[in-house]
Amino acid sequence: MPFLNEMLAETERKNKNAEALKDENTSGQDIESLHLASKARFSSRFQFDIEAVMSAIRSEIIGQEQAVQAVEDMLKVVRADIADPRRPLYTALLLGPTGVGKTELVRSLARSLYGDADSFCRVDMNTLSQEHYAASLTGAPPGYVGAKEGKTILDEKMIEGRNNIPGIVLLDEVEKASKEVLHALLNVFDNGMLTVASGEKTYSFRNSIIFMTSNLAAYEIQSYEESRKKILLKVIHRCSRKKGEGLERIVKKKLLNTFSPEFVNRIDNITVFNWIGEDAVGRIVELELEKLNRRLIKHSCLLTFDADVVKFISNAGYDRQFGARSIRRSVRKNLEVFLAEYLLDNHQVALEGNDPVKYHASIFNGKIFFKRLTYNVK
């Protein structure tokens, strides 16, 4: 009875939230007795392994340790269940240029918590750039078609998550949303609730982790880093101390030029992503090839490759301006196209059991070539 199970889980979650609100209202003199009455072992309604989640994220998000550490710090607070029960569990703004892993970080978290990288409520804010599109988020106002239904583009199940796992919300490219949409989000960030314009329905974000992404200040950050490198050649010992201060000042100025102070002040954490460095490119290529092998499972294939293949794809695809997306395009252009041609012409099913047919990729005369390693085939 999936429907009944969902109803029971939702009821249990609401009861837990009600208990959290009640505990917060307890008078100071009762706090000590509450602690004494609690179990010796610390318990929480959230049940997930922080170490396992972070291990998976760190294996997928390369060169962004500051951002990854911010997620780990957030998960500790959520796992302990000590966040303000009247607000979202966490509200974060991820800043940085395109292709550095902002959205991928959210996907990796969803995959680690739910086993599915798409298990989060994603709102592409660039689709809400016009004033009249605000109804997509807040619902049609009274008197308009659809007002009574209170329908929006929000996915309530993804927002509320499960009783023991927080929901995840991604507001992508938030700087492109209209002022009306941003104004509607103020209440979400402040008390974790969004009531549609008709008043017929209310969405709760109090069990949600909210991420926003933005390319704001990307150019300024790049200019700052380049100028800092020049200065470091002269006075390295002075600049190392002031790096964080200078970058924080640049980012804050850009944010306040784009968003209202009320909006910025409701964000729990702002993380600036680094540009993808050359030292991280090889590992990103390896990750893309690992993903390719997972896609090849359905065809009973396995691809191995030389280190020269990784180097070849890295050199052909690295573009600091476009980040990991440029590397993915290089994998497609320099390997996947030729692998597809080879498989269409040469793939044969293995004779024994379910063992995959193994193929090996290597470099010859500046191109990637393939050969079959499994010969016991039909």
Automatic annotation (TrEMBL):
One protein family per Pfam: AAA_2
> What top-level branch of life does the organism fall under?
Bacteria
Q: Which InterPro entries match?
A: AAA+_ATPase, ATPase_AAA_core, Clp_ATPase_C, ClpA/B, ClpA_ClpB, P-loop_NTPase
Q: Name one GO molecular function term.
A: peptidase activity
Q: Where is the AAA+ ATPase domain?
A: 88-237
User: Which UniProt keywords are present, listed alphabetically?
Assistant: ATP-binding, Chaperone, Hydrolase, Nucleotide-binding, Protease
Q: Which cellular component terms (GO) are annotated to the entry? A: cytoplasm
Q: Does the keyword Zinc-finger apply?
A: no
Name the GO terms of the biological process aspect: cellular response to heat; proteolysis
Domain Clp ATPase C-terminal, which positions? 276-358
Question: Which parts of the chain are coiled coil?
Answer: none
* The UniProt record lists the keyword Membrane: no
Protein name, entry field: ATP-dependent Clp protease ATP-binding subunit
